[in-house]
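Friendly challenge for the regulars: who can give me the structure tokens for this chain first? No prize, just bragging rights.
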Amino acid sequence: MDGGSERGRNKYQRVLAMARRLPPVPTAVVHPCDAVSLGGAIEAYRLGIIAPILIGPPARLAEVAQQNGIDIAGLPQVASEHSHDSAAKGVALVREAKAEALMKGSLHTDELMGAVVAKDSGMRTARRISHCFIMDVPGYAAPLIITDAAVNIAPTLEEKVDIVQNAIDLARALGIDPPLVAILSAMETVNPKVQSTIEAAALCKMADRGQITGGVLDGPLALDNAISREAAAIKHIVSPVAGHANVLVVPDLEAGNMLAKSLSFLAGAECAGIVLGARVPIILTSRADTLVSRIASCAVASLVAARRRSTEGAIR
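First reply, four minutes later:
Bragging rights claimed.
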């Protein structure tokens, strides 16, 4: 697993090792028409994590491969005319059961997600679609899942139920059992003037009533007492989650995006990204992602796809 910082890899290496024990997941790589996106997909293929189906204009794919010394000989390709056509054909491969994951190439996120959420795409389930960052933070014991920081801008309480459940299911696919879920706010007490604290309390009670399953929830929690045992002790918070959280549910996209980027650029964390709640996992990478992050995202998708196969229909 080459590229990126050495200090933020140990959790990802465990995820990679888990994925490499599985068969390569058939993955529709949508419009990988630059060196970064094509190279990341091919490296994940070389490591045995994905079995890529490259979708894009054939001449453009060949040009990018030739200019950057990337070997795509023998790999299946689906010809498309442009990025929107690539997205539509990627979704079609999933609908035809020829792909078990989608991977974003060099097209815009809204082009890919527009094809995914279209009414006739066959990609929707009963779940709300949401995004998770899986952070490998130096000095933190477990992978840290942050949701939602990329898809749902200002989710309602009802939408947060699915966001939390998607994150719990992801954590369990990564071997985290049980997931310890912190519902974040600016404070750890319920304040009627701060909506996120009300929703945090409601989500925890919904978990008590079996409306959210598979994880241990607590909230509201401020970030410090969610991840620091010392901070939790100082605040006299007695909870299995406080100080040990491995899933952080943020109030809105802005908070989540700033948290994830702070960890990446100030703490040296590596950051994988995946979209859940659709028929298949969607590997949603950024142009700024390192090769480590891209490969880790593929490994996470492989584990999610494997769990989906073993619990077919559970999220329909």
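The longest helix spans residues 291-310. The chain has a mean pLDDT of 93. Your move, everyone else.
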